[in-house]
Fold this protein.
Amino acid sequence: MKKTINFPVYLNKKIFLDYLVPFLIFLIFFAIGLNVYKDYGISFDENFHRETGKLYYYLLKSFFINLDLSEKAFVSDIKTAIQEFPLIEGRLRVSIMTPALFDTIVEFYIDLKNITAIEEVFFIRHLFNFLFFFSWLLFFLFNSLKNI
């Protein structure tokens, strides 16, 4: 006669509902997001955001990496680039003058991995967009669980 060992698992209903259910929902949401980020599509201003990110990334890169003054990018280069960007109801130049942290981080990754195919560049931007969004969702989840 075989003797079975039962491991008692006591799940409190409150613990299950407060912690396990949100974790499972976020896990499913994360899995879906990783599978559909290539289906976001490209908006009309995405190229402008990429150019802004490249501009500030190259400025930071030249400031921190290039020691040769002939290869440095200067703030005057940004002002010149701003004047060359087209206007869309007068708003585009204002958005270019403000540094874009997200776009700069994505351009750093693109340069680090040496990604040149434009389709892959936009897929990476969509992936980072989803990951930034998801990380903030997790931040709010953990913050709300802390208050329970």
Summary: Residues 84 and 93 are 9 Å apart (CA to CA).
